[in-house]
């Protein structure tokens, strides 16, 4: 390990933590996490498969949903294997390089997901407020370009985070406060000034997630204003019902994100248990809930799922 004046510049490993006080129930926690991971993989894979097979769903709304599903699959896979090894086998160490890669994936994919949620809000805004222009504005080609821009935006803004960590010296504790690597968590273990990390991290969060959430909120203010002007209560209910699934997905993403950010920036008085639970909720809630929300709220996906079950039942009966 390189050193300078007795200071470890880059530790070989960090130590992840499980849920404090539940060490005796690690196997049950591992079973729960494994079950949630299987649900996330199965649900998001089903969304991708259904949209691919059903040509009537080859429209921007469902392509955005596929983007969310793909992001959730990669994000959960980037963190879940290490989580399972932690709780199942008590393997707490993660190498410095693997930690930086995991950190980059978690933050950049979260930024991409935030961008896709903003694009979905814009899609709903145009569909409700300017329905005659929707087909010409949100074409499949435009949707693909939005996906590429969202990916580039996430990489561009969050690639500097692990690079900034590389410049920090570590000479004290190597124990993180989560079951996976986050920039704020790793940064707090440094034994030097972290002002550039703090400033850049906060600025990036505000420019990406903060700006996206503000624009999503403004789009729904305009949507509500337009919906309330409809003459029929039935039309108002029908128009707003098309947004319910997206609103639920937005809440499932931003509420844990805000909670985790608050826990990191107001640390005094918080027990380690809160850190671990908020971190796990943030990383697990969207991948598990998103396909369930859209499966329940979207009739086209429900029909395709029922059709698949009927085909399997018919095949089993033959």
From TrEMBL:
Keyword Lyase on entry: no
Pfam families per record: 7tm_4
Domain of life according to the entry: Eukaryota
Bilayer topology annotation: Multi-pass membrane protein
InterPro entries: GPCR_Rhodpsn, GPCR_Rhodpsn_7TM, Olfact_rcpt, OR51/52/56-like
Keywords: Cell membrane, G-protein coupled receptor, Membrane, Olfaction, Receptor, Sensory transduction, Transducer, Transmembrane, Transmembrane helix
Gene Ontology molecular function: any one: olfactory receptor activity
Protein name: Olfactory receptor
Family listed: Belongs to the G-protein coupled receptor 1 family.
Subcellular location: Cell membrane; Membrane
Organism: Alligator sinensis
GO cellular component terms, A-Z: plasma membrane
């Amino acid at each position: 390990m390189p050193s300078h004046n007795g200071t470890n510049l880059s530790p070989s490993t960090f130590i992840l933590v499980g849920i404090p006080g539940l060490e005796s129930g690690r196997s049950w926690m591992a079973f729960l996490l494994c079950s949630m991971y299987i649900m996330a993989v199965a649900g998001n894979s089903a969304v991708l498969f259904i949209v691919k097979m059903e040509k009537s769903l080859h429209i921007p709304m469902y392509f955005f949903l596929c983007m969310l599903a793909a992001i959730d699959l990669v994000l959960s896979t980037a963190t879940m294997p290490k989580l399972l090894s932690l709780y199942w086998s008590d393997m707490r160490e993660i190498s410095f390089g693997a930690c930086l890669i995991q950190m980059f994936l978690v933050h950049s994919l979260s930024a991409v997901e935030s961008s896709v949620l903003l694009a979905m809000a814009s899609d709903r805004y145009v569909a409700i407020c300017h329905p005659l222009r929707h087909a010409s504005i949100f074409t499949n080609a435009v949707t693909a370009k939005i996906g590429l821009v969202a990916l580039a935006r996430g990489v561009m803004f969050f690639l500097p985070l692990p690079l900034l960590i590389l410049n920090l010296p570590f000479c004290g504790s190597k124990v993180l406060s989560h079951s996976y690597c986050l920039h704020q968590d790793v940064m707090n273990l440094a034994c030097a000034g972290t002002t550039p990390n703090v400033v850049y991290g906060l600025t990036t969060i505000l420019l990406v997630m903060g700006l996206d959430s503000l624009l999503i909120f403004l789009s729904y203010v305009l949507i509500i204003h337009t919906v309330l002007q409809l003459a029929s209560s039935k039309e108002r209910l029908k128009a707003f019902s098309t947004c319910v699934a997206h609103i639920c997905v937005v809440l499932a993403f931003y509420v844990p994100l805000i909670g985790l950010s608050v826990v990191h920036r107001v640390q005094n008085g918080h027990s380690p248990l809160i850190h671990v639970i908020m971190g796990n909720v943030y990383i697990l809630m969207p991948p598990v809930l998103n396909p369930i929300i859209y499966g329940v709220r979207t009739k086209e996906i429900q029909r395709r799922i029922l059709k698949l079950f009927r085909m399997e039942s018919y095949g089993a009966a033959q």
